[in-house]
Amino acid sequence: MARTAAAADRRPPTAAELEGIPLDEREDVIEVENLVTHFGERKILKDVTLSVRQGEILVIMGGSGSGKSTLLNHLLGLLKPTSGTIRILGKDITRISEREFTEIRKKLGVAFQGGALFSSMNLIENIMLPLFEHTDLDRSTMEIMARMKMEVVSLSGFEKLMPAELSGGMIKRAALARAIVMDPRILFCDEPSAGLDPVVASAIDDLILSLRAATGMSVVVVTHELDSAFKIADRICVLDKGAVLTIAPVDEVKANPDHRIQNLLNRRTEEEVLDPEEYLRRLTGETS
Amino acid sequence: MAQAKAISFLDRMGRAAVAAVAELGFAAVLLGQALLWTVIGRARRQPVRLSAVVKEAMDIGIRALPIVTIMSGTIGIMLAIQGIYSLRIFGAESKVTLGVALSIVREFGPLITGILVAGRSGSALAARLGTMKISQEIDALTVMGINPVRFLVAPPLLAALVMIPALTFYADLIGLLAAGLYISAELGQTLSAYWLDAIESITANDLLHGLGKSVLFAVLIVLVGVINGLSVSGGAEGVGRMTTRSVVHAISAIIITDMLFVFVTTR
Q: Which strands form A57-62's sheet, in the order they lie side by side?
Protein backbone atom coordinates (compact mmCIF):
# COMPACT_ATOMS: atom_id res chain seq x y z
CA MET A 1 0.00 0.00 0.00
CA ALA A 2 1.40 3.39 -0.97
CA ARG A 3 2.02 5.89 1.79
CA THR A 4 0.50 9.34 1.96
CA ALA A 5 1.42 12.08 -0.46
CA ALA A 6 4.92 13.46 -0.56
CA ALA A 7 5.29 17.01 0.74
CA ALA A 8 6.00 19.54 -1.99
CA ASP A 9 8.99 21.09 -0.28
CA ARG A 10 10.74 17.92 0.90
CA ARG A 11 13.86 16.88 -1.01
CA PRO A 12 12.75 14.39 -3.63
CA PRO A 13 14.45 10.99 -3.57
CA THR A 14 17.03 10.39 -6.25
CA ALA A 15 16.79 7.59 -8.78
CA ALA A 16 19.40 5.64 -6.80
CA GLU A 17 17.41 6.01 -3.57
CA LEU A 18 14.22 4.82 -5.26
CA GLU A 19 15.93 1.80 -6.75
CA GLY A 20 15.07 -1.23 -4.70
CA ILE A 21 11.92 0.25 -3.19
CA PRO A 22 8.91 -1.62 -4.59
CA LEU A 23 6.42 0.59 -6.39
CA ASP A 24 3.69 -0.22 -3.84
CA GLU A 25 5.78 1.14 -1.00
CA ARG A 26 6.65 4.48 -2.56
CA GLU A 27 4.88 7.70 -1.72
CA ASP A 28 2.15 9.04 -3.98
CA VAL A 29 3.02 12.22 -5.86
CA ILE A 30 -0.43 12.48 -7.42
CA GLU A 31 -3.68 11.35 -5.79
CA VAL A 32 -6.97 11.80 -7.61
CA GLU A 33 -10.13 10.93 -5.70
CA ASN A 34 -13.67 10.73 -7.02
CA LEU A 35 -13.05 13.27 -9.77
CA VAL A 36 -16.23 14.29 -11.57
CA THR A 37 -16.43 16.78 -14.41
CA HIS A 38 -19.27 18.07 -16.52
CA PHE A 39 -19.19 20.02 -19.77
CA GLY A 40 -22.64 21.55 -19.70
CA GLU A 41 -25.04 18.68 -19.06
CA ARG A 42 -22.58 16.00 -20.20
CA LYS A 43 -20.65 14.10 -17.55
CA ILE A 44 -17.12 13.76 -18.93
CA LEU A 45 -15.27 12.20 -15.99
CA LYS A 46 -17.11 9.81 -13.69
CA ASP A 47 -15.63 9.28 -10.23
CA VAL A 48 -12.06 8.92 -11.43
CA THR A 49 -9.71 7.74 -8.70
CA LEU A 50 -6.05 7.05 -9.32
CA SER A 51 -2.59 7.65 -7.94
CA VAL A 52 0.91 8.08 -9.31
CA ARG A 53 3.90 7.07 -7.22
CA GLN A 54 7.42 8.37 -6.96
CA GLY A 55 9.51 7.33 -9.93
CA GLU A 56 6.58 5.61 -11.62
CA ILE A 57 5.56 5.89 -15.26
CA LEU A 58 1.77 5.81 -15.41
CA VAL A 59 0.27 5.64 -18.89
CA ILE A 60 -3.29 6.86 -19.30
CA MET A 61 -4.93 5.12 -22.25
CA GLY A 62 -8.32 5.16 -23.85
CA GLY A 63 -10.09 5.64 -27.13
CA SER A 64 -11.19 8.96 -28.57
CA GLY A 65 -13.64 10.69 -26.24
CA SER A 66 -12.66 8.51 -23.28
CA GLY A 67 -11.73 11.59 -21.24
CA LYS A 68 -7.96 11.14 -21.10
CA SER A 69 -7.14 14.64 -22.33
CA THR A 70 -9.73 16.10 -19.95
CA LEU A 71 -8.16 14.16 -17.09
CA LEU A 72 -4.71 15.47 -18.05
CA ASN A 73 -6.02 19.04 -18.17
CA HIS A 74 -7.38 18.57 -14.65
CA LEU A 75 -4.05 17.25 -13.41
CA LEU A 76 -2.39 20.34 -14.90
CA GLY A 77 -4.95 22.66 -13.29
CA LEU A 78 -6.21 23.90 -16.66
CA LEU A 79 -9.76 22.79 -15.84
CA LYS A 80 -11.76 22.91 -12.61
CA PRO A 81 -13.63 19.75 -11.68
CA THR A 82 -17.27 19.61 -10.63
CA SER A 83 -16.26 17.61 -7.56
CA GLY A 84 -13.45 15.48 -6.22
CA THR A 85 -9.88 16.18 -5.16
CA ILE A 86 -6.56 16.26 -6.98
CA ARG A 87 -3.55 16.24 -4.67
CA ILE A 88 -0.21 16.94 -6.32
CA LEU A 89 2.88 16.69 -4.12
CA GLY A 90 0.54 16.71 -1.13
CA LYS A 91 -1.45 19.82 -2.04
CA ASP A 92 -5.06 19.73 -3.21
CA ILE A 93 -4.78 21.83 -6.36
CA THR A 94 -8.55 22.31 -6.54
CA ARG A 95 -8.47 24.30 -3.31
CA ILE A 96 -5.11 26.09 -3.14
CA SER A 97 -4.52 29.70 -4.18
CA GLU A 98 -3.06 30.57 -7.58
CA ARG A 99 0.12 31.67 -5.81
CA GLU A 100 0.55 28.30 -4.08
CA PHE A 101 -0.21 26.51 -7.32
CA THR A 102 2.52 28.52 -9.07
CA GLU A 103 5.02 27.09 -6.57
CA ILE A 104 3.75 23.56 -7.29
CA ARG A 105 3.92 24.19 -11.03
CA LYS A 106 7.61 24.97 -10.79
CA LYS A 107 8.05 21.29 -9.83
CA LEU A 108 6.07 20.02 -12.82
CA GLY A 109 7.13 19.68 -16.44
CA VAL A 110 4.71 19.37 -19.32
CA ALA A 111 5.38 18.28 -22.90
CA PHE A 112 2.32 19.12 -24.98
CA GLN A 113 1.18 17.05 -27.93
CA GLY A 114 2.01 19.73 -30.50
CA GLY A 115 5.03 20.95 -28.55
CA ALA A 116 3.48 24.35 -27.72
CA LEU A 117 6.83 25.99 -28.43
CA PHE A 118 6.65 29.78 -28.64
CA SER A 119 6.90 30.63 -32.30
CA SER A 120 8.50 34.03 -31.63
CA MET A 121 11.44 32.49 -29.75
CA ASN A 122 14.25 30.31 -31.03
CA LEU A 123 14.88 26.86 -29.60
CA ILE A 124 17.24 27.79 -26.79
CA GLU A 125 15.06 30.74 -25.74
CA ASN A 126 12.07 28.39 -25.57
CA ILE A 127 13.96 25.94 -23.39
CA MET A 128 15.40 28.68 -21.16
CA LEU A 129 12.04 30.38 -20.59
CA PRO A 130 11.14 28.61 -17.30
CA LEU A 131 14.65 29.36 -15.95
CA PHE A 132 14.39 32.97 -17.10
CA GLU A 133 11.03 33.42 -15.38
CA HIS A 134 11.60 31.49 -12.17
CA THR A 135 15.28 31.77 -11.29
CA ASP A 136 17.83 34.51 -10.70
CA LEU A 137 20.54 32.75 -12.69
CA ASP A 138 22.63 34.80 -15.08
CA ARG A 139 22.05 34.31 -18.77
CA SER A 140 25.23 32.33 -19.42
CA THR A 141 24.34 29.81 -16.68
CA MET A 142 20.83 29.49 -18.08
CA GLU A 143 22.26 28.86 -21.54
CA ILE A 144 24.55 26.16 -20.18
CA MET A 145 21.62 24.46 -18.41
CA ALA A 146 19.44 24.69 -21.53
CA ARG A 147 22.26 23.27 -23.68
CA MET A 148 22.63 20.35 -21.22
CA LYS A 149 18.96 19.49 -21.67
CA MET A 150 19.28 19.89 -25.44
CA GLU A 151 22.16 17.44 -25.32
CA VAL A 152 19.94 14.99 -23.38
CA VAL A 153 17.29 15.12 -26.12
CA SER A 154 19.88 15.10 -28.92
CA LEU A 155 19.19 18.63 -30.14
CA SER A 156 22.65 20.11 -29.67
CA GLY A 157 23.62 22.50 -32.43
CA PHE A 158 20.04 23.57 -33.19
CA GLU A 159 19.89 26.36 -30.60
CA LYS A 160 19.16 29.18 -33.02
CA LEU A 161 16.47 27.42 -35.06
CA MET A 162 12.93 28.72 -34.84
CA PRO A 163 10.10 26.25 -34.05
CA ALA A 164 8.79 26.56 -37.63
CA GLU A 165 12.11 25.15 -38.87
CA LEU A 166 11.91 21.97 -36.77
CA SER A 167 10.62 18.53 -37.78
CA GLY A 168 7.84 16.79 -35.82
CA GLY A 169 10.29 14.63 -33.88
CA MET A 170 12.50 17.62 -33.08
CA ILE A 171 9.50 19.57 -31.78
CA LYS A 172 8.56 16.69 -29.45
CA ARG A 173 12.15 16.47 -28.18
CA ALA A 174 12.37 20.24 -27.76
CA ALA A 175 9.12 20.18 -25.77
CA LEU A 176 10.63 17.47 -23.56
CA ALA A 177 13.79 19.52 -23.08
CA ARG A 178 11.74 22.54 -21.98
CA ALA A 179 9.64 20.33 -19.71
CA ILE A 180 12.71 18.99 -17.87
CA VAL A 181 14.80 22.15 -17.75
CA MET A 182 13.72 22.90 -14.16
CA ASP A 183 14.37 19.24 -13.14
CA PRO A 184 10.70 18.61 -12.33
CA ARG A 185 9.45 16.00 -9.90
CA ILE A 186 6.60 15.04 -12.20
CA LEU A 187 6.72 15.04 -15.99
CA PHE A 188 3.48 15.05 -17.99
CA CYS A 189 3.60 13.99 -21.64
CA ASP A 190 0.58 14.36 -23.91
CA GLU A 191 0.79 11.90 -26.81
CA PRO A 192 4.60 12.03 -26.95
CA SER A 193 4.93 9.70 -29.92
CA ALA A 194 1.75 10.51 -31.84
CA GLY A 195 2.28 11.38 -35.49
CA LEU A 196 5.90 10.25 -35.53
CA ASP A 197 7.41 7.46 -37.59
CA PRO A 198 8.10 4.25 -35.63
CA VAL A 199 11.85 4.85 -35.29
CA VAL A 200 11.48 8.39 -33.94
CA ALA A 201 8.55 7.30 -31.73
CA SER A 202 10.68 4.55 -30.24
CA ALA A 203 13.51 7.03 -29.64
CA ILE A 204 11.09 9.29 -27.72
CA ASP A 205 10.01 6.30 -25.59
CA ASP A 206 13.66 5.49 -24.85
CA LEU A 207 14.21 9.11 -23.92
CA ILE A 208 11.37 9.06 -21.39
CA LEU A 209 12.71 5.83 -19.87
CA SER A 210 16.24 7.20 -19.63
CA LEU A 211 15.02 10.46 -18.08
CA ARG A 212 13.15 8.53 -15.40
CA ALA A 213 16.16 6.28 -14.79
CA ALA A 214 18.48 9.25 -14.47
CA THR A 215 16.35 11.51 -12.31
CA GLY A 216 13.78 9.34 -10.55
CA MET A 217 10.99 11.67 -11.65
CA SER A 218 7.45 10.40 -11.94
CA VAL A 219 6.00 10.46 -15.43
CA VAL A 220 2.37 10.62 -16.53
CA VAL A 221 1.92 9.83 -20.20
CA VAL A 222 -1.35 10.18 -22.09
CA THR A 223 -1.29 8.12 -25.25
CA HIS A 224 -3.27 5.87 -27.49
CA GLU A 225 -0.14 4.26 -28.96
CA LEU A 226 -0.21 0.69 -27.66
CA ASP A 227 3.40 -0.20 -28.46
CA SER A 228 4.62 2.91 -26.72
CA ALA A 229 2.42 2.30 -23.66
CA PHE A 230 3.56 -1.31 -23.27
CA LYS A 231 7.20 -0.28 -23.60
CA ILE A 232 7.34 2.51 -21.04
CA ALA A 233 4.53 1.94 -18.54
CA ASP A 234 4.93 0.66 -15.01
CA ARG A 235 1.15 0.74 -14.77
CA ILE A 236 -1.56 1.53 -17.30
CA CYS A 237 -4.79 3.33 -16.47
CA VAL A 238 -7.50 2.50 -19.00
CA LEU A 239 -10.30 5.04 -19.38
CA ASP A 240 -13.59 4.40 -21.14
CA LYS A 241 -16.38 6.96 -21.43
CA GLY A 242 -14.89 8.97 -18.57
CA ALA A 243 -14.58 6.07 -16.12
CA VAL A 244 -11.47 4.15 -15.04
CA LEU A 245 -11.74 0.52 -16.18
CA THR A 246 -8.50 -0.60 -14.60
CA ILE A 247 -5.15 0.61 -13.27
CA ALA A 248 -2.66 -2.21 -13.35
CA PRO A 249 0.78 -3.30 -14.55
CA VAL A 250 1.10 -3.97 -18.29
CA ASP A 251 0.77 -7.78 -18.07
CA GLU A 252 -2.36 -7.55 -15.92
CA VAL A 253 -3.95 -5.08 -18.33
CA LYS A 254 -3.15 -7.38 -21.25
CA ALA A 255 -4.74 -10.32 -19.42
CA ASN A 256 -7.81 -8.38 -18.29
CA PRO A 257 -10.95 -10.15 -19.60
CA ASP A 258 -13.05 -6.95 -19.82
CA HIS A 259 -14.17 -6.80 -23.48
CA ARG A 260 -13.78 -2.98 -23.57
CA ILE A 261 -10.12 -3.31 -22.60
CA GLN A 262 -9.59 -6.14 -25.06
CA ASN A 263 -11.27 -4.09 -27.79
CA LEU A 264 -8.88 -1.24 -27.08
CA LEU A 265 -5.82 -3.49 -26.99
CA ASN A 266 -6.85 -5.31 -30.17
CA ARG A 267 -7.88 -2.08 -31.93
CA ARG A 268 -11.47 -3.27 -32.35
CA THR A 269 -14.36 -0.87 -32.40
CA GLU A 270 -17.40 -1.72 -30.37
CA GLU A 271 -20.24 -2.31 -32.81
CA GLU A 272 -23.36 -0.43 -31.98
CA VAL A 273 -26.56 -2.44 -32.26
CA LEU A 274 -29.31 -0.22 -33.65
CA ASP A 275 -32.93 -1.07 -34.08
CA PRO A 276 -34.29 -0.23 -37.56
CA GLU A 277 -36.46 2.64 -36.32
CA GLU A 278 -33.53 4.36 -34.61
CA TYR A 279 -31.44 3.84 -37.75
CA LEU A 280 -34.15 5.45 -39.87
CA ARG A 281 -34.42 8.40 -37.46
CA ARG A 282 -30.67 9.00 -37.74
CA LEU A 283 -30.77 8.87 -41.52
CA THR A 284 -33.57 11.41 -41.67
CA GLY A 285 -31.86 13.63 -39.12
CA GLU A 286 -34.62 13.31 -36.51
CA THR A 287 -33.44 13.14 -32.95
CA SER A 288 -34.67 10.20 -30.93
CA MET B 1 -45.54 30.62 -35.91
CA ALA B 2 -45.07 34.39 -35.55
CA GLN B 3 -44.96 33.99 -31.78
CA ALA B 4 -42.26 31.30 -32.08
CA LYS B 5 -40.21 33.57 -34.34
CA ALA B 6 -40.56 36.46 -31.89
CA ILE B 7 -39.47 34.25 -28.99
CA SER B 8 -36.53 32.98 -31.03
CA PHE B 9 -35.54 36.57 -31.88
CA LEU B 10 -35.78 37.63 -28.23
CA ASP B 11 -33.78 34.54 -27.23
CA ARG B 12 -31.00 35.47 -29.66
CA MET B 13 -31.02 39.09 -28.51
CA GLY B 14 -30.87 38.02 -24.89
CA ARG B 15 -27.96 35.69 -25.50
CA ALA B 16 -26.10 38.37 -27.45
CA ALA B 17 -26.69 40.88 -24.64
CA VAL B 18 -25.42 38.42 -22.02
CA ALA B 19 -22.35 37.65 -24.16
CA ALA B 20 -21.65 41.39 -24.59
CA VAL B 21 -21.90 42.00 -20.84
CA ALA B 22 -19.64 38.98 -20.19
CA GLU B 23 -17.10 40.37 -22.68
CA LEU B 24 -17.16 43.77 -20.97
CA GLY B 25 -16.61 42.07 -17.62
CA PHE B 26 -13.72 40.07 -19.07
CA ALA B 27 -12.20 43.28 -20.45
CA ALA B 28 -12.43 44.93 -17.03
CA VAL B 29 -10.79 41.93 -15.36
CA LEU B 30 -8.01 41.84 -17.96
CA LEU B 31 -7.33 45.56 -17.56
CA GLY B 32 -7.30 45.26 -13.77
CA GLN B 33 -5.03 42.22 -13.81
CA ALA B 34 -2.61 43.73 -16.32
CA LEU B 35 -2.26 46.92 -14.25
CA LEU B 36 -2.03 44.90 -11.02
CA TRP B 37 0.78 42.72 -12.41
CA THR B 38 2.60 45.85 -13.53
CA VAL B 39 2.53 47.11 -9.95
CA ILE B 40 2.97 43.91 -7.92
CA GLY B 41 4.80 41.73 -10.45
CA ARG B 42 8.26 42.41 -9.05
CA ALA B 43 7.18 41.62 -5.50
CA ARG B 44 5.67 38.34 -6.74
CA ARG B 45 8.92 37.58 -8.60
CA GLN B 46 7.03 37.81 -11.91
CA PRO B 47 7.86 41.29 -13.19
CA VAL B 48 6.52 42.76 -16.41
CA ARG B 49 9.77 42.76 -18.37
CA LEU B 50 10.96 46.09 -19.76
CA SER B 51 12.44 44.27 -22.76
CA ALA B 52 8.98 42.90 -23.63
CA VAL B 53 7.44 46.38 -23.31
CA VAL B 54 10.17 47.91 -25.52
CA LYS B 55 9.64 45.18 -28.13
CA GLU B 56 5.92 45.93 -28.21
CA ALA B 57 6.60 49.68 -28.27
CA MET B 58 8.79 49.23 -31.34
CA ASP B 59 5.98 47.38 -33.08
CA ILE B 60 3.11 49.62 -32.00
CA GLY B 61 4.95 52.93 -32.25
CA ILE B 62 8.18 53.06 -34.22
CA ARG B 63 7.13 50.74 -37.05
CA ALA B 64 3.88 52.67 -37.45
CA LEU B 65 5.70 55.94 -38.13
CA PRO B 66 5.74 55.70 -41.96
CA ILE B 67 2.01 55.01 -42.30
CA VAL B 68 1.09 57.58 -39.63
CA THR B 69 3.23 60.14 -41.47
CA ILE B 70 1.53 59.46 -44.80
CA MET B 71 -2.01 59.37 -43.41
CA SER B 72 -1.78 62.37 -41.09
CA GLY B 73 -0.02 64.41 -43.79
CA THR B 74 -2.72 63.50 -46.30
CA ILE B 75 -5.51 64.38 -43.89
CA GLY B 76 -3.81 67.68 -43.03
CA ILE B 77 -3.74 68.65 -46.71
CA MET B 78 -7.31 67.42 -47.21
CA LEU B 79 -8.56 69.52 -44.28
CA ALA B 80 -6.74 72.55 -45.63
CA ILE B 81 -8.33 72.11 -49.08
CA GLN B 82 -11.82 71.66 -47.62
CA GLY B 83 -11.32 74.50 -45.14
CA ILE B 84 -10.27 76.99 -47.77
CA TYR B 85 -13.12 75.87 -50.03
CA SER B 86 -15.73 76.30 -47.27
CA LEU B 87 -14.41 79.56 -45.89
CA ARG B 88 -14.02 81.11 -49.34
CA ILE B 89 -17.85 81.21 -49.48
CA PHE B 90 -17.73 83.79 -46.68
CA GLY B 91 -14.49 85.35 -47.85
CA ALA B 92 -12.79 84.14 -44.68
CA GLU B 93 -10.00 81.93 -46.07
CA SER B 94 -7.51 83.59 -43.74
CA LYS B 95 -9.27 81.89 -40.80
CA VAL B 96 -8.54 78.43 -42.20
CA THR B 97 -5.58 77.89 -39.88
CA LEU B 98 -7.78 78.10 -36.80
CA GLY B 99 -10.22 75.46 -38.10
CA VAL B 100 -7.53 73.15 -39.41
CA ALA B 101 -5.36 73.35 -36.29
CA LEU B 102 -8.24 72.64 -33.92
CA SER B 103 -9.60 69.86 -36.12
CA ILE B 104 -6.25 68.11 -36.30
CA VAL B 105 -5.25 68.42 -32.65
CA ARG B 106 -8.66 67.74 -31.11
CA GLU B 107 -10.02 65.20 -33.59
CA PHE B 108 -8.14 63.95 -36.60
CA GLY B 109 -4.73 63.35 -34.97
CA PRO B 110 -6.00 60.96 -32.28
CA LEU B 111 -8.67 59.41 -34.51
CA ILE B 112 -6.45 58.57 -37.46
CA THR B 113 -3.70 57.29 -35.15
CA GLY B 114 -6.18 55.13 -33.22
CA ILE B 115 -7.66 53.66 -36.39
CA LEU B 116 -4.23 52.95 -37.90
CA VAL B 117 -2.91 51.29 -34.74
CA ALA B 118 -6.12 49.25 -34.41
CA GLY B 119 -5.67 48.03 -37.98
CA ARG B 120 -1.95 47.31 -37.60
CA SER B 121 -1.25 46.29 -34.01
CA GLY B 122 -4.69 45.41 -32.62
CA SER B 123 -5.27 42.89 -35.37
CA ALA B 124 -1.71 41.53 -35.03
CA LEU B 125 -2.26 41.10 -31.29
CA ALA B 126 -5.53 39.23 -31.86
CA ALA B 127 -3.93 36.98 -34.49
CA ARG B 128 -0.88 36.30 -32.31
CA LEU B 129 -2.90 35.41 -29.21
CA GLY B 130 -5.37 33.38 -31.25
CA THR B 131 -2.58 31.34 -32.80
CA MET B 132 -0.97 30.90 -29.39
CA LYS B 133 -4.27 29.70 -27.98
CA ILE B 134 -4.92 27.05 -30.61
CA SER B 135 -1.32 25.81 -30.45
CA GLN B 136 -1.60 25.50 -26.62
CA GLU B 137 1.13 28.10 -26.02
CA ILE B 138 -1.09 29.90 -23.51
CA ASP B 139 -1.72 26.60 -21.69
CA ALA B 140 2.05 26.05 -21.75
CA LEU B 141 2.61 29.41 -20.03
CA THR B 142 0.01 28.58 -17.39
CA VAL B 143 1.47 25.17 -16.56
CA MET B 144 4.96 26.68 -16.39
CA GLY B 145 3.64 28.96 -13.64
CA ILE B 146 3.89 32.06 -15.86
CA ASN B 147 0.81 34.25 -15.62
CA PRO B 148 -0.42 34.78 -19.21
CA VAL B 149 -1.90 38.22 -18.45
CA ARG B 150 1.41 39.40 -17.01
CA PHE B 151 3.37 37.85 -19.88
CA LEU B 152 1.11 38.57 -22.86
CA VAL B 153 -1.28 41.41 -21.99
CA ALA B 154 0.63 43.81 -19.72
CA PRO B 155 3.53 44.51 -22.17
CA PRO B 156 1.35 45.59 -25.14
CA LEU B 157 -0.93 47.56 -22.82
CA LEU B 158 1.95 49.52 -21.30
CA ALA B 159 3.56 50.00 -24.72
CA ALA B 160 0.27 51.26 -26.19
CA LEU B 161 -0.31 53.62 -23.27
CA VAL B 162 3.02 55.29 -24.02
CA MET B 163 3.26 54.97 -27.79
CA ILE B 164 -0.27 55.83 -28.95
CA PRO B 165 -0.29 59.29 -27.27
CA ALA B 166 3.27 59.80 -28.60
CA LEU B 167 2.16 58.79 -32.10
CA THR B 168 -0.86 61.08 -31.77
CA PHE B 169 1.37 64.02 -30.92
CA TYR B 170 3.56 63.14 -33.89
CA ALA B 171 0.48 62.85 -36.15
CA ASP B 172 -0.65 66.29 -34.92
CA LEU B 173 2.69 67.81 -35.92
CA ILE B 174 2.77 66.13 -39.33
CA GLY B 175 -0.87 67.03 -40.02
CA LEU B 176 -0.26 70.66 -39.06
CA LEU B 177 2.92 70.80 -41.15
CA ALA B 178 1.27 69.32 -44.24
CA ALA B 179 -1.73 71.63 -43.89
CA GLY B 180 0.65 74.55 -43.40
CA LEU B 181 2.55 73.74 -46.58
CA TYR B 182 -0.69 73.70 -48.58
CA ILE B 183 -2.11 76.82 -46.93
CA SER B 184 1.14 78.72 -47.46
CA ALA B 185 1.19 77.81 -51.13
CA GLU B 186 -2.51 78.48 -51.68
CA LEU B 187 -2.92 81.71 -49.69
CA GLY B 188 0.60 83.07 -50.21
CA GLN B 189 1.26 83.08 -46.45
CA THR B 190 4.73 82.25 -45.10
CA LEU B 191 5.13 78.95 -43.23
CA SER B 192 6.42 80.72 -40.10
CA ALA B 193 3.36 83.00 -40.08
CA TYR B 194 1.17 79.91 -40.42
CA TRP B 195 2.94 78.26 -37.45
CA LEU B 196 2.46 81.35 -35.30
CA ASP B 197 -1.24 81.36 -36.19
CA ALA B 198 -1.54 77.66 -35.47
CA ILE B 199 0.21 77.88 -32.10
CA GLU B 200 -1.96 80.82 -31.11
CA SER B 201 -5.08 78.85 -32.06
CA ILE B 202 -4.26 75.76 -30.03
CA THR B 203 -4.48 75.83 -26.23
CA ALA B 204 -3.01 73.27 -23.85
CA ASN B 205 -6.57 72.15 -23.24
CA ASP B 206 -7.01 71.29 -26.94
CA LEU B 207 -3.80 69.29 -26.94
CA LEU B 208 -4.77 67.41 -23.77
CA HIS B 209 -8.23 66.74 -25.23
CA GLY B 210 -6.63 64.87 -28.14
CA LEU B 211 -3.99 63.11 -26.07
CA GLY B 212 -6.57 62.10 -23.43
CA LYS B 213 -8.64 60.43 -26.11
CA SER B 214 -5.57 58.62 -27.41
CA VAL B 215 -5.00 57.09 -23.95
CA LEU B 216 -8.56 55.69 -24.03
CA PHE B 217 -8.00 54.41 -27.58
CA ALA B 218 -4.82 52.64 -26.44
CA VAL B 219 -6.73 50.74 -23.76
CA LEU B 220 -9.55 49.89 -26.19
CA ILE B 221 -7.23 48.65 -28.96
CA VAL B 222 -5.29 46.32 -26.66
CA LEU B 223 -8.30 44.96 -24.79
CA VAL B 224 -10.32 44.33 -27.96
CA GLY B 225 -7.31 42.59 -29.55
CA VAL B 226 -6.67 40.44 -26.48
CA ILE B 227 -10.31 39.46 -25.95
CA ASN B 228 -10.77 38.47 -29.57
CA GLY B 229 -7.46 36.61 -29.63
CA LEU B 230 -8.32 34.66 -26.50
CA SER B 231 -11.78 33.84 -27.86
CA VAL B 232 -10.41 32.02 -30.91
CA SER B 233 -11.67 28.53 -31.52
CA GLY B 234 -11.76 26.33 -34.57
CA GLY B 235 -8.21 26.56 -35.90
CA ALA B 236 -6.88 28.85 -38.62
CA GLU B 237 -10.35 29.89 -39.79
CA GLY B 238 -11.16 30.96 -36.24
CA VAL B 239 -8.00 33.07 -36.09
CA GLY B 240 -8.98 34.85 -39.32
CA ARG B 241 -12.53 35.41 -38.12
CA MET B 242 -11.51 36.84 -34.76
CA THR B 243 -8.77 39.02 -36.30
CA THR B 244 -11.34 40.63 -38.59
CA ARG B 245 -13.75 40.96 -35.66
CA SER B 246 -10.99 42.59 -33.63
CA VAL B 247 -10.39 45.30 -36.27
CA VAL B 248 -14.11 46.01 -36.73
CA HIS B 249 -14.76 46.12 -32.97
CA ALA B 250 -11.71 48.25 -32.20
CA ILE B 251 -12.49 50.85 -34.86
CA SER B 252 -16.17 50.94 -33.84
CA ALA B 253 -15.20 51.28 -30.18
CA ILE B 254 -12.76 54.09 -31.00
CA ILE B 255 -15.32 56.10 -32.97
CA ILE B 256 -18.11 55.63 -30.40
CA THR B 257 -15.77 56.46 -27.50
CA ASP B 258 -14.57 59.51 -29.41
CA MET B 259 -18.13 60.76 -29.83
CA LEU B 260 -18.93 60.16 -26.14
CA PHE B 261 -15.71 61.86 -25.06
CA VAL B 262 -16.45 64.88 -27.21
CA PHE B 263 -20.06 64.96 -25.99
CA VAL B 264 -18.97 64.92 -22.34
CA THR B 265 -15.99 67.28 -22.55
CA THR B 266 -16.84 69.76 -25.29
CA ARG B 267 -20.45 70.83 -24.97
A: A108-111, A186-190, A218-222, A57-62, A235-240, A243-249
